[in-house]
Here is the input.
Amino acid sequence: MSRPDGRSTRCRYLWPIPEGSALRDASSVSRVTTTPYWERFQPTSGALPPRAWFTSDAPALDLSGDWRFRWSPRADAPLDFTQPGFDDSGWATLPVPSHWQLHGYGAPAYTNIRYPFPVDPPRVPTDNPTGDYRVTFTVPPGWRGRRIVLRFDGVDSCARVWLNGAEIGITSGSRLPAEFDVTSALGWNGSESLAVRVHQWSSGSYLEDQDMWWLSGIFRRVTLTVRPAGGVDDYFLHADYDHATGGGTLTVEASAPARVMVPELGIDAAAGQAIPVAKVEPWSAELPRLYDGELVAGAERIPLRIGFRRVAVNGGLLMVNGRRILLRGVNRHEFHPDRGRAVTAETMLDDVLLMKRHNINAVRTSHYPPDPRFLDLCDAYGLYVLDECDLETHGFFPPEGAIPGNPADEPAWREELVHRMRRMVERDKNHPSIIMWSLGNESGSGRNLGAMAAWARERDPARPLHYERDNTYRDVDVYSLMYPTHQQVELIGQYKEEPLDDPDLDARRRAMPFIMCEYGHAMGNGPGGLSEYQELFDAYPRCQGGFIWEWIDHGLRIVAPGGEYFGYGGDFGEPLHDGNFVADGLLFPDRTPSPGLLEYKKVIEPVRISGAGEALRIDNRHDFADLSHVRFEWSVEEEGTELITGQLKVPDIAPGESATVALPEIPTVNGEAWLTVRAVLAQDTPWAQAGHEIGWGQVQVGAAAPRTEAPRSPLTVAARQIHLGQGVFDAADGRLTRLGDVGVAGPCLDVWRAPIDNDRAFSRDANELAWRRLGLHRMQHRIDEVTPGPDELVIRTRVAPAATHLGLYATYRWTAYGNTLRLTVEVTPDGDWKLPLPRLGLRMALPGEFQHVEWFGLGPGEAYRDSRRAARVGRFRATVDELQTPYVFPQENGNRAAVRWLTLRDGNGAGLVVTGEPVIDVTARRWTSEALDAARHPVDLRPEERIWLNLDHGQNGLGSASCGPGVLPAHQLLAVPATFTVTFRPVG
Here is the structure.
């Protein structure tokens, strides 16, 4: 059937209607066609006008805690629970704030783009999980006769509210506040009864498809506050800064007569007037200077934290306080592995401190306004904020093509979208940390976005606007893209990007600064190529950095009989999901920094130290701070052993400037030696203690001693074995079986790695598909020749997958001298290879007791071809288990790069030394690459009784193709002729 408008009809109820139901008669069935409140285009009603979030000395009551809770599979459960006398003793309890799915009611679900319900806006399924909440509280007697406001800071996705049986209102917009005047509904009988019904799905769900877990409930705080007579309900603080004069202007617009008092600046003036200040210290992310003040009105005093600063787009650049800034940012979802988006103040502080300690200076609040307390922290500790509206309609743009009716352009949605923008701007307008507003994310283009922009410009013309998805950029002030290639960024930096069809719009866009709202997709092992992006930011002023996607893996903690792990899409029975695409952060779910975060910290370091001939070059990459807060420490190590340390005298270097400094006096060395210079905090700061490292550099000051040729040991053949020095080989296939007293298996040529997320089928490169199609995960080894000589063993092989003519010829040349066995491998591709190799090297098995590892090379963490800036040359120790990186989805990890030598020992000191000539890459695991490939969670990996050791000539780079560019050509491991050498020596 079709309706007159051509759309198909659909039945509201597809199951038997129970006896006694009001739906049994025809008239009641017709009544259910009335649009319920949760399916309206503007579902919010009864709420007070949006206003700024602030605290004051007015009394407040936090209603957080255990509330009574009932879960229903549909939205039409009885409403009798709203009455004060309702008996809820049989109900469960649920903490507020929280998500009900994380307490056993329904289950979490993850989708990246697709809506988990039919796309028929504003309608949602009749199967609409609903949570009913009840709590009783007592209002202090002294509050009687005063205006009382009930505030919800976040409810997902739509809530209806009653107080003492009286309906108060309805709120939608999950990450936005709603306030209700409840003065007349209070009973003043010693026990007030608050009831809230929350629906999982509503019309607002179409606006909240934000690449995260679908989680429901009252997940932010609920408070009851007194609004004093004559108090200030709202204010707008303007603290402008003129970099030319060093002066500021303070204006506080207040909703009621009030006075502005800032003792440090000698200010005591009426609100509403512009107050000039001759000299102020400006606020920036590097120097987050805040002045404490008060807004005093009647019986209310509101603390002010005032940051003088000016943000502008000037000359095609994004400027703060008259200077071009470089955004070293991250995208931050609110997330905790046990609490979902119900994050605590402690978690917010953890995030801010981790960001500051890893040189991050900016946050995009993807893709909704955060808990307002997070913005207080950004003000205080110093982080630039791109505050994003609670809007994403990505589900209208699935891979197979756009779906009609995108809310960004449908007139019926206009009021709701503008209202969401208004609620964000009004709530957050007084934060100096917010330097831009964002209209939302991945919602296509349309007239409603223009209406949002027009409202924001009128209300707050002092902040630029951002939105990425409309390529005309007619409504915004910055040019923004997601995941452009390095080549695209360079063209944009040169103003050579592809022109728009409209010359006026094209000229407008070319006059904008360029910012990547998302880049460096940090999914699994990666991202690679960050340093090449940073070089472009340094080279082209128009390119002003961006925000890594993203801050944290959204893995939900699962405790199972096999162990604890972090779940992702599909682990909770979702019929539609996007797997581990939700695990794409610089932090693991428990907030442990990943190798990607350590790499990013190094790439964006604000103090850069490098060699300059016979001197050192120190670059101050800060935008505003000089280096008076930095101490420079140096050390010299020979073969990883420290010889001498000291402090380097560095002149004060202004922001953006550099200086050349003489090398310290270096002692005589006899081997490979490195000077390491560290820039550390000279004094404690609010975010780190003195001695915290913010940058470092290394300069080689001594070369490795040349290898000396020793007389070769003779080769003998006996009892189907070949003996060469300490080595014992199988005479039939030439495999090494023993080295001294150590039983080994291998080594043999290996080209396979457990694919990383950037290799996998959903990535732009999808190397995994090509590799598996060719069969690189199932290579077969053919022995063509085993040739013993007087002092040399030569094995010629061909290594190739089935069903193809492509292969690799590998020749192994073994020699021995003293107790050392030397292997040179020559690899020649056979056929026309069109794709890079995952890896090229050797794999062998050692006794499982060889758990203790020491190496001289890059470390201490893992490093790969295009992600190794964070690794420094030194001598490091770890256990085999400590070498592993526990990515949420198991994949290739733990590579130690440019290793000169490596020792693996058991608890008694017996073991094996492996040396590269000159260097090799190394991984050591208690499982094979095949087992790692097959695992879906770390608990799937079962330790074997052997250590599997990879000694690699190289691996393919990482890139960020899971949602970004692939591996740059310079970091691809091409199938070309290669020769590499390693030596083996037993110890202990």
